[in-house]
Amino acid sequence: MYTPVFIDDLPDVSSISNRKSELYRLTRARALADLLLDETANWQERACPGCGQDRSQSGNFSQAMVPFHRCSHCNTIYAARVPDQARLEALRTRLLAEAGNTETSAAAGSRREFEFVSILNWIRLTEARTATSAGGLLPHVLDYRFCSESPAWPGAVERLGKNRDWRFMPLDAKAAAGNFADLRDQLQANPPEAVLLNTEMDRVADPAGLLRVIRANAPRGTLVFVATSCADGLEYEILGADSPSFVPLDRLNIFSVKGFETLARELGYEPLEISTPGRLDAVILQRYFTEIENADVPFWSGFFREADKDRLRDLQILLQRSLRSGVMRFVLKT
Amino acid sequence: MSLRAAIIGYGKMGQIRHRAMERHGGFEVVAACDTHTDFDAGIPLMTDPAKVYDYDPDVIFCCVPNMMIPDTVCEALSRGKHVFSEKPPGRNSADVRRMQEAEATHPELVLKFGFNHRFHDAIESALQLIEGGTMGDLYFMRGVYGKAGGADYAKNWRNDPEQSGGGILIDQGIHMLDLFLMFADRFTDVQSFVQRKFWTDVPVEDNAFALMKNPKGVVASLHSSATQWQHRFTLELYTHGGFISVNGILSASGTYGTEVLNVALNRLDKDGNPIPNPESQEIRFTEDRSWDKEIAEFHAAVTKGTPIRCGTSQQALDVMSLVEQIYAADADWSSGLAARSVKAV
Ligand SMILES: [Zn+2]
Questions:
Q1: Do A125 and B280 touch (CB under 8 A)?
Q2: pLDDT tens digits along B107-125
Q3: Of A276, A334, B99, B297, which alpha carbon lies 20 to 30 A from B335's?
Q4: B3 phi and psi, to 5 degrees?
């Protein structure tokens, strides 16, 4: 199994400062509160979505409106109670409609282009490495739901994704019907060689259910590219619930490497590649410790306050090499 | 199927091969031969190479100095034994041709040479990426392979041209040339500088620089050095669509560092020009599996008849011819070499 490290320049702190704007955060929090108040919502208590360990053995991660736990066995961070999938999809659909097409600016477009090239090149290199063993190339990619989260995404794909068929499946609460029926039908009708789940594992109430539908309906040998948050990342290790990336409704599951690998193997997938290509842990932590002067974490607060860009980059690469950055990528084979 | 193996030349390489055969499990090492036998190897040891045949081996591992390789290989083939031989395959291309003639009279036998660098994980991965077409056409290759000559440099048989055929180029640089040939097939134009810098009282080179071009225009540059005080292995492959580099190579000495493959595909600006310093994928290899893969290929070739992919006698001939071309391309060196060998005679 490969564990690649993705080496690139670190972004400037200024470019990430509005990553999750306060308005976005508040809107998500209000939606979650509404859902909690809604007596018709059906909340499910659950164990660790990674390794299945009982919740009673895990520490609380946050005492926000929804209790989060950090699994003491696999380090996955997860909401202890989740609404049913159908309800969650309806809520996400409503929020996306309310937000409107806010991501159409040129800056958003170029950000998506950058992200798309990274994902496309990841797929191309994996394709080259697996072409002989898996027996084929990946001309058809099924992109599940990321186009809903990022309206600028399809445009970037169209401009840059030449010679490859990229099929978008936006979030469709009715068709998904809470059990990913839309995905099942699509996989059966037009089997792709690759499926991309970009940030989706964080957001679904039933991550195992999503992976099960793909495994049951995609042909054997299909590659599933999963990009998701990573609980082992230094950002989450140090900041926990204070992490600017932690927006509860968007992060019902923050898998650890071990947790996600356990889940994938349990469901019959073969992991081909694991990486944590996050580029932001170091700059996020530096901003946190310089903005919040009384924040005091042994070793780290001093380290980040004094670190120059060069040292931040060294640390970020070390985090990647150690599978300890806040974003992870898996390539799974069905 | 278990093969009875005898090792002729039980020095460092012979013992490395012995251990690899034990790990493989498909060999029974029945005897070994070396100049001294006063130690316990767990197998019968002898000083007369002819005696190993009394143990009825199926295969011979030839791990002797370069000048003894042709005789040892030809003898083993004439006795109907499959042969695995260390590199370099003799001292020159004439040695390889002699072995090829012996091989041709026994087409049922396997002859394989130990160019093990092709079996390193980073190199295999690089080849897969190039052959897969993702990287686009190959433009050029740069290879640096060097080490500090070592304590007994002047006394070592490797640096006696009568025994070895040359210096650092034929000993270590040959691996890089073999990899170049794997990617570029053959070179038609060769230019070079061959030098003695530090060990000036030794008749072989301690540095060789070569610039080569294949018929498709792929250019390769090599620097092979025995004055590379900081040990180094670097192979870079630049293509239309990006680049691959391999830094470090896992070795028995462990002095060339972790084997690290970097691969990048270009990002293009809106006019289609590559943006500098693209995101690259780094893959680190920490376990040297080359010896095991090499032994496994030999075993499969003998027992199942699968063709040899790495280390055929044709590849051996190609790389030895290229070594000779590099020596010859530096007129100062090749005329000096003639003078030195006259003196030696
Ligand atoms: Zn767990």
A1: no
A2: 999 999 999 999 999 999 9
A3: B99
A4: -105, 135
At position B329, the amino acid (one-letter code) is A
Ligand 1 center to A301 CA (angstroms): 29
Helix (H) or strand (E) holding B179: helix B174-184
| pLDDT at A132 > cutoff 60 | no
Ion ligand 1, residue ranges at CB < 5 A: A 48, 50-51, 53, 71, 73-74, 76, 259
Chain mean pLDDT for chain B: 94
CB contact under 8 A, B283 and A3: yes
Helix axes A106-134, B121-131, angle to 10 degrees: 110
B133 with A8: Cβ contact below 8 A: no
- Taking alpha carbons only, the member of A14, A96, A72, A84 closest to residue A45 is A84
* Mean predicted confidence (pLDDT) in A147-168: 85
Kindly list the residues from chain A whose CB atom is less than 8 angstroms away from the CB atom of residue B136. none
Is B127 in CB contact (< 8 Å) with chain A?
A: no
Mean predicted confidence (pLDDT) in A157-166: 83
Query: Where do the domains of chain B lie, and which CATH numbers do they carry?
Result: 3-115+292-308 (3.40.50.720), 117-287+320-340 (3.30.360.10)
What percentage of chain B exceeds 70 in pLDDT? 97
Q: Is the pLDDT of residue B344 over 50?
A: no
Residue B152, burial from CB neighbour count under 10 angstroms (0-12, 13-18, 19+): exposed
CATH number at residue A80: 3.40.50.150
Q: Is B283 on the interface with A (CB under 8 A)?
A: yes
